[in-house]
């Protein structure tokens, strides 16, 4: 139009420009680098993704807050290529295990290093019953962190990204950046959501039968065992046994009890968060407070968390300074998660449908052993309470000597206090005769660190760009615990141990370690086309032998931006960016225990009626770090300004793995820790982001991740494999290999179970003792990842995120009872067994004949209880509506969004999977796990 005064010029791959209309114009367009300006936070510093030669992925705050879970790490499942988050329980606030690019050690730690605002934090399991096999009620320090306070999370994977952390980076690094203040007037943000949690799907195959089916199958089992001539006699015999043992006449009107329904229900979930941020050029602040509540879906469980955070950042001339502090208190009512009878799930699979919850007079039926309703009575039942307090203080100071040269001192103090109280009530048959049992456990983990760095960042002649960081770091980690127990409570009115008459045990423990480090990191690029980087770190740790306390770690990396070459000009209309990169280096693993290299004694023993000590551990002055050599080759591409693709091939080999090497008993010791083994992880991963449609009224974005990782043992402590009942550690095989008799099915003529005979071949046998152990699969998935989509239409938004795993095996060790075919006489029976059991010659099934007091070996450990663990889970789904701003501005509101969300809406499993949820520990073993709940929430985001 002739009246136009401004001309807007745009082109794919170039920055849009506005210029004044003139008769003659010459416009030079610049490449649009918005995809390259993403910031990578390494903990010690910040660099643009364009200059970063390593492998890393950034997850923003929006992705973290889509889900409603106390542990924000679960939000990363499927969102980050190469990262696995393993949760074996739906208990609120429970610990989740995290691995990056596979398991890299046998006896040392496998969790990544967590760094918050430059300070490494303590994230180990805490609790008196935190180990697998002892209930695994581990408390997670990460569950005390409010995800609304997190700005973003950066997952560092390869050597270039992690070698700067040296001895702590073997398993990758997760860098958490918290929200800071901003310039301008005070801005308030209020987030509120409330809803309900429930078990969305209960596999009918895994549920126990009702009373009618129970009586029918046990009558059949008695006949099959030869104890009765027909089903009528069988029913009579079953009734006689039940009446004699349990005092119940099955010929009467006996209600059928669904014990699973009794212990499960809906739980209130709510979260409220208020924050304010603001400031000016000299001083900026951020303050927040939050309340979170998650009532468990299983009786007697739940969590409340109160948290607050304060951040202050300022500058005066060349000086910069800041202070951040956060504190949180969580109160958790927990449950055993494994084979203990106090786990309500275990009790369910040991209670018969004729056993009632209450007696006729309304009191609890304590003849129903470990009655979970009685045990979890709010006033007089068992108690499993955990109170966790975390406090973190992080002051820093910077001094700018000149443009491009800055000194920074960063310090941190983290304290985690855990107080646990466990009480076994009069309703608990294990302790009712001793007047109940009380246990108190106190733990404190303290981390103190200081980091000093000098950073030089300068460009020469606009083409040479140099960024050099040198630094020093020191850290001390200490841990202490105090435990006491007593029994003989005269009353359940007050639960302090002083009120018990018989002290039963007491103890305390203290341990500490120190780390001292010096490091240097350099990055150079020429004309934003050729990039190179190198790092070196020298670590000294108190955890290792006197001869190997210090060790070097290093990395080199390079990147080539091909799209900047002149010969690529013809591709600029569709290829915005194309780079290839590679890196190689070493990192270490110091997570071996605090005193693994020391000679230790156990005290508290009596020798000739005198206090004494015994040798406990032999010293090894040569014990050193496990070292991981990491190699990575990657390609990054941006197509049509809409599609971002990242592809990586990696190889990670762990050397000098620590093993317990057997010793002659004449030494007085059974073994010694030595650096012997090797393990390898290699694989391929991809990340694809696609802005399929992006216009004024409608947008559609897709995110895809995928990882194929192959784990392999290269070397063990001896030439012989390490064999277990169901597992094997063997050179050339994955660490998590299942090794057991291979189940074939059922003999169609006799109903007897069949296994493959011996360790190879296809001959079958019905004698479990003739069935040799074979490698029958691995807990490692062959492929895993996620898919997410985000839609926006005007003021409406909709998004979903799903995760998947393919090709992994899951072994349920509890199925020896849950899937019994008669060996547990008069025990509960699953619907799967009832519906699929062999009944007559010619039946083709996987379930053997049901025989009372069965001795066929069908309940023995074998691949009968091994299942395909593949699944597709709808992690989260959100539908929101943002109120138009013109309707809100008159009342001083900047933004108002209302939404409804659903977490764990559904999970699609393999056809042969039976259970609540296929996700479990990294080793693939599960039993009587707390069901993962579905959560429906209604919420609002308010900004003013």
Describe this entry's structure for a reader:
This protein has 9 helices and 48 strands. It has 944 residues and is mainly beta. The strands form 10 sheets. The chain has a 22-stranded antiparallel β-barrel. A 5-stranded mixed sheet has the order 5-10-11-8-9. A hairpin with a 7-residue loop joins strand 1 (6-9) and strand 2. The chain is globular and about 105 Å long. It starts with 5 loop residues before the first strand and ends with a strand. Mean pLDDT is 91; it is low at 8-16 and 28-35.
Layout of strands and helices, then pairs:
Layout: E1 6-9, E2 17-20, E3 39-41, E4 46-48, E5 56-60, H1 61-64, E6 83-86, E7 97-100, E8 113-116, E9 119-120, E10 150-156, H2 159-162, E11 173-178, E12 184-198, H3 211-224, H4 231-246, H5 259-263, E13 267-279, E14 283-295, E15 302-316, E16 319-333, H6 344-348, H7 372-375, E17 383-402, E18 405-424, E19 437-460, E20 464-487, E21 502-526, E22 530-541, E23 550-561, E24 575-589, E25 600-607, E26 610-617, E27 626-639, E28 643-662, E29 671-694, E30 698-715, E31 722-723, E32 727-729, E33 737-741, E34 743-746, E35 753-756, E36 764-765, E37 773-778, E38 783-793, E39 796-806, E40 809-812, H8 815-818, H9 831-836, E41 837-838, E42 847-849, E43 866-868, E44 871-882, E45 895-903, E46 907-909, E47 925-926, E48 934-943
Parallel strand pairs: 8-11, 40-47, 41-42
Antiparallel strand pairs: 1-2, 3-4, 5-10, 6-7, 8-9, 10-11, 12-13, 12-48, 13-14, 14-15, 15-16, 16-17, 17-18, 18-19, 19-20, 20-21, 21-22, 22-23, 23-24, 24-27, 25-26, 27-28, 28-29, 29-30, 30-38, 31-32, 32-33, 33-37, 34-35, 35-36, 38-39, 39-44, 40-43, 44-45, 44-46, 45-48
Helix pairs in contact: 3-4
